[in-house]
Specification:
Layout (H helix, E strand, L loop, with lengths): L1 H4 L12 H7 L11 H17 L6 E4 L6 H12 L3 E5 L6 H9 L6 E5 L6 H13 L1 E6 L6 E6 L4 E6 L7 H5 L3 E4 L5 H14 L3 E2 L1 H9 L5 H18 L3 E2 L1 H10 L9 H13 L7 H8 L3 H14 L3 E4 L2 E4 L1 H7 L18
Parallel strand pairs: 1-6, 1-7, 2-3, 3-6, 8-9
Antiparallel strand pairs: 4-5, 10-11
Bound molecules: adenosine-5'-diphosphate.
């Protein structure tokens, strides 16, 4: 993940994001921009649970990083007047870790597990009875004295987040009552988010400046907030602190973020498909090897947005670059479709 870690456009939280993310994170459904379908339905779930005096059904959220899954879990807890406890799949190594976390939950607390598809199998199996009966079974002692003890838990809501719903086992998936897919945000929604964030950070921003940052943020709130901080620094040093369209453009160009929000890694990925593999189709592993990056980063972090904006298309035999990608990179697409690739530029 080396290249991804150092990217300004990284969709994963960077260590210095934490204090800013806390300050900028919406705390109620009203403050949460976009994702209307998920928000509308979660509002109803929360209200119904409150009326019945119960906890909200377990929720599975899926979608790329940085789109607001943790934020939604926090909002559910806030609206229920309870606590949010967060962890992640890879952080829970042993069954005992999970039992410890679950035992400390108070009634109706929200327990958030990020990257839930990466829970170790043995931990996942402990989670089943916890989700279903609010109880965990563990085995005391060994050999012929071994006995299984049932430990009751306070009723809680599990919010699981995943970038890869397909990697969740069926028994785990079936134990969630509520599913929502979070999609990339529109430019208008990102403009609202960046304008709100600028107000909180007391940065002066013009509406054209807000739009420019939004356009380059790959549909992702975490990125729009991160780019805002970079542009704010630049504006402070170079432009009396005012974030205008030109200031935003210059600052982000310097950071290697182009007009469509692509950075060096995206361009290397597209360049490899086009220059080395004739535009594709090519398997993701081959591209990863060519540009010396890992397949997971490319398929979870780089590809989803390129697919979304139609710069690449996924086919049974691999990925191919579209006409839009050639145009964006200023490259000449092949004159005629290669035999057997009749659909090359049909989109
Ligand atoms: P995820 O858990 O999906 O990786 P987060 O919930 O941590 O994403 O969101 C990253 C940051 O983006 C948050 O700190 C928050 O400031 C911002 N954010 C996310 N979704 C929204 C939204 N709908 N409205 C406003 N800000 C948002």
């Amino acid at each position: 993940m080396a290249a991804e870690d150092s990217r300004i456009l990284s969709r994963a939280p960077a260590p210095d994001d934490a204090p800013f993310e806390r300050a900028l994170r919406p705390r109620s459904f009203d403050e949460y921009v976009g994702q209307h379908q998920a928000v509308g339905s979660l509002r109803v779930s929360v209200q119904a649970a409150q009326q019945r005096g119960e906890c909200v059904d377990h929720v599975l959220l899926y979608g790329p990083p940085g789109l607001g899954k943790t934020t939604l879990a926090g909002i559910i807890a806030n609206e229920m007047g309870t606590n949010l406890v967060t962890t992640s799949g890879p952080a829970i190594e042993r069954g005992g870790d999970l039992v410890g976390l679950l035992s400390n939950l108070a009634e109706k607390d929200v327990f958030f597990i990020d990257e839930i598809h990466r829970l170790p199998r043995i931990v996942e199996e402990l989670l089943y009875p916890a989700m279903e009966d609010f109880a965990v079974n563990f085995v005391m002692e060994k050999g012929m004295h071994a006995r299984s003890i049932k430990h009751r838990l306070a009723p809680f809501t599990l919010v699981g987040a995943t970038t890869r719903p397909g990697m969740l086992s069926a028994p785990l998936r079936e134990r969630f009552g509520i599913f929502h897919h979070l999609d990339f945000y529109s430019d208008d929604e990102l403009t609202q988010i960046v304008t709100r964030s600028a107000t909180i950070l007391e940065a002066r921003i013009e509406s054209a400046g807000a739009r420019e940052i939004s356009r380059r943020s790959r549909g992702t709130p975490r990125i729009v907030n991160r780019l805002l901080r970079r542009v704010r620094d630049y504006a402070q040093v170079k432009a009396d602190g005012v974030i205008s369209e030109a200031v935003a453009r210059d600052a982000l160009q310097r950071e290697g973020v182009d007009a469509r929000g692509l950075d060096k890694l995206d361009r290397r990925f597209l360049d490899a498909i086009i220059d080395i593999y004739g535009g594709g189709p090519v398997g993701i592993d081959a591209v990863a090897a060519t540009i010396n990056d890992d397949t997971e980063t490319l398929s979870e972090i780089v590809e989803p947005y390129l697919l979304k904006i139609g710069f690449i298309a996924r086919e049974p035999r691999g990925r191919r670059a579209t006409r839009e990608a050639y145009a964006h990179l200023g490259k000449q697409p092949p004159a005629a479709p290669v035999a057997g690739q009749g659909t090359l530029f049909d989109r």
